[in-house]
Amino acid sequence: MSVILVVALAVLGGLGAVARLLLDGAVSQRLARPLPFGTLAVNLSGAFALGVLAGAAVDGDALRLAGLGLLGSYTTFSTWMLESHRLAEHGALRLSLLNLAGSLAAGLGVAAVGHWLGSAL
Length: 121
What we know:
The structure is a single chain. It is built from five helices and no strands. By secondary structure, the protein is mainly α. It has one domain. The protein is about 85% helix and about 0% strand. α2 packs antiparallel against α3 (about 60-75). It is globular and about 50 Å long. It has helices at about 5-30, 35-55, 60-75, 75-90, 95-120. The longest helix has 28 residues, at about 5-30.
């Protein structure tokens, strides 16, 4: 792996993290609800984008840059798990389970749609 690729991954990783922060904040501010809709919006849009990349058969450095660098830092498994855990901790077990199962099902669905659209490119 070249130094240029590593630097590009770092830059795109930073951009993905900032994009996640901005989208999560905007959605959370508009939809102040117990469910973490900001994280859901981030993860669903990221799953869709990764599906498009996979469907379009992007590979090599382009996949590393877009999939790992940008989208890898944009999507957030750990925040999703932490928010689900906190819901359960605060007595909202049903919301916690809804967040877990709903996010997973929706993520698989949007990734499949993205894959289908990507393969049509």
